[in-house]
Amino acid sequence: MLPEVKALIEYFGFNPMPVENTLFVSTYRADRELADNEPIGTAMLGLYCEEPRSVSLFHKLPADEIWHFYLGDPLRLILLYPDGSSKDVIMGNAPLKGQHVQFVVPAGVWQAGHLLAGGKYALYGCTMAPGFIDTMFQGGTYEELVAVYPDRADDLTLLSCDTGLTQMPQGFAE
Fold first, then answer.
1. Which residues of the chain form beta strands (DSSP E)?
2. Domains delineated in the chain
């Protein structure tokens, strides 16, 4: 493990997220709740790196998720839209070269992400309003996604959820 990755893991207290194994830490959960007991907003920090392996596997959420790039090397978000189209978004600290420092993934869009090849790490954040709760997460398997997005078979092979592991454990996000 790279010394700077180890230092970031220790400093922020990153742990693997269930289902996708992304290194993350919850940084904010609103005390106020909506009528259905969902927090008004949540925020988290994430770290992509090769060792330990940290990526986001394909999943979708029923609310918009705002991504923020903070530090390190560029990362790639892969977005699969309901109409069958797809898009790559590069997040990094060079906006004048086309990298995004902030990007909104719309509700209902399949998303996955990883550090670009050759990078050491990427420190990023995600915020949601309404806030994230475990029942929002729906992981995508290769079989279900490749039928709609056959041109993304290579990405799906690397970043799909295991069959049977597509939901967050109950009580995870509380």
1. 15-16, 23-29, 42-49, 56-60, 65-72, 75-80, 86-91, 102-105, 110-115, 121-128, 138-139
2. 3-159 (2.60.120.10)
For the question of whether the overall pTM of this predicted structure is more than 0.90, the answer is yes
Q: What per-residue string of b and e applies to 85-103 under the rule 16 or more CB within 10 Å gives b?
A: ebeebbbbeeeeeebbeeb
Which amino acid is it at 30? A
- CA proximity to 110, closest of 67, 147, 160: 160
pLDDT, tens digit, for every residue of 72-105? Answer: 999 999 999 999 999 999 999 999 999 999 999 9
Strand 121-128: give its sheet, edge to edge: 15-16, 23-29, 42-49, 121-128, 65-72, 102-105
Measured distance CA(6)–CA(113) in Å, rounded: 21
